[in-house]
Amino acid sequence: MRRQPSGSSITLTGRGGIVVVFGVALVGSVLGSESLLGIGVLPGVSFVIGCALAALTTRTADLLTVAVTPPVIFFLVAIIASIVDALGSGSLIRGVFVGVVTVLASGAPWLFLGTLLVLAITIPRGLLTNLRELRGRLVGRRLFEDDDYDDDPVRWDEPQT
Question: What pLDDT shows up at residue 11?
């Protein structure tokens, strides 16, 4: 974390924002599981809070990183929370599978809300500028410079006479 010269606001890098979303969502998911507190909405609420915190505190240059990662973070948290929840059950693999499917099915509205909230916060903060800059850097750059696109991609062996 970095401090601004004014000393009042915290600015995170893109990785720091990802860690905030992941940490807050994971703590909420583990605490909200059936084996601990059993509060069904806690995982979703904690994910949305983590998304909002990351979107508000990430530096402007890294907003694109924070904007695209909430679905991946949600999936990883679902896997980890399901593993933790299934540790005491008879079959770990079955418990994790059922847990992940349940979390993904019941948590879809929270995932959409968190992702939309990140976009709603980051667009006014400069997300579109980041996208324009990325596009500007990628325009004119060839991904496979060794490939020759002018050649015919299908090479037929000509019959020898």
Answer: 86
